[in-house]
Write a structure and sequence with these properties.
With 275 residues, the chain is of the alpha+beta class. The protein has helices at 18-21, 37-43, 49-57, 150-157, 177-185, 222-229, 260-269, and strands spanning 35-36, 61-63, 66-68, 74-75, 82-84, 87-88, 97-102, 131-132, 141-147, 165-172, 188-189, 192-193, 198-205, 208-215, 234-242, 255-257. The longest helix has 10 residues, at 260-269. 33% of the residues are buried.
């Protein structure tokens, strides 16, 4: 098996070596602090290790002017010019923890191949390389955390740590007790049952209902698919809480820095110590 989980072919693929990108120095240079590129990006807070691997595969990373697509590539973070999407990575950049209230019509990613607006377009004045933690659909709205803390981002998005995301869903029709129980116990989506959820009917009027649902998985369009499975399509979806973090006063399209106390709570929720 290769480092990225694929099988080796009879004729091995050519990997860029450390000497190809690290200033002409091979790994034999004992003074060089070379390391795998995805590990460097993760340590610098660019993204989690897995997300950094995707950045490399997509050809969005360059070292000393050479675009890198091979996961085996090594570089020296102290000497090499490492860039993501053309922006040089600063390895001593301060940690940023931003809470954004995403409106509908924005993609929760740094880069969209369809050239749609992204959440980064809403962050005027933020110079550090940050990225959204997890996903929130283009047609959904609500809270998104953006950071350059790769360790925290990985913890928040991994189901094993069970960090809750709470949503407010306006749905067609009024779910009865049986439908709410099905949502709470888990429904089948694409051949897999969803994990147990907390569900509460908040209000109902004129053939519609507001349902609050808390999940700790991050499957694609999961909440919408869950309500579809019980016969109540989502008309509007808003994320109102991420773990211990919420802010009803934050207006759509606006953002703010998390306080040190909020960062501490978030790290504890993700099973990390306070930094």
């Amino acid at each position: 098996m290769t480092d990225d989980g694929g099988s080796r072919s009879a004729r091995p693929r050519r990997h860029l070596r450390a000497r190809d990108v690290a200033g002409g120095r091979g790994t034999e240079d004992r003074g060089s602090r070379t390391d795998r590129l995805q590990k460097i990006l993760s340590a610098a807070g660019v993204a989690s290790r897995r997300a950094s691997e995707e950045l490399i595969r997509e050809g969005r990373v360059s070292v000393n002017g050479t675009t890198v697509t091979e996961l085996g590539t090594k570089a020296d973070p102290e000497r090499d010019d490492i860039r993501v999407d053309g922006r040089r990575i600063r390895f001593e950049q301060r940690r940023r923890y931003i809470l954004l209230n995403k409106p509908r019509g924005y993609v929760t990613t740094r880069h969209d191949p369809e050239d749609r607006p992204t959440v980064l377009d809403l962050l005027e004045g933020v110079k550090e390389y940050i990225y959204p933690v997890g996903r929130l659909d283009y047609d959904s709205e609500g809270l998104v955390i953006l950071t350059n803390d790769g360790e925290l981002a990985a913890r928040l998005t991994h189901p094993r740590h069970e960090v809750e995301r709470v949503y407010e869903a306006r749905v067609r029709g009024v779910p009865d007790a049986r439908s709410l129980e099905r949502l709470a116990r888990g429904v089948m989506i694409e051949g897999r049952r969803t994990a147990p959820a907390r569900v509460r009917l908040a209000s109902a009027r004129e053939g519609q209902a507001i349902v609050e649902i808390a999940i700790h998985e991050g499957r694609r369009r999961q909440v919408r698919q869950m309500f579809e499975a019980v016969g109540h399509p989502v008309l509007r979806l808003r994320r109102i809480r991420i773990g211990p973090i919420g802010d009803e006063m934050l207006k759509p399209g606006h953002y703010r820095e998390l306080t040190p106390q909020e960062v501490g709570k978030l790290r504890r929720a993700a099973g990390l110590g306070h930094r």
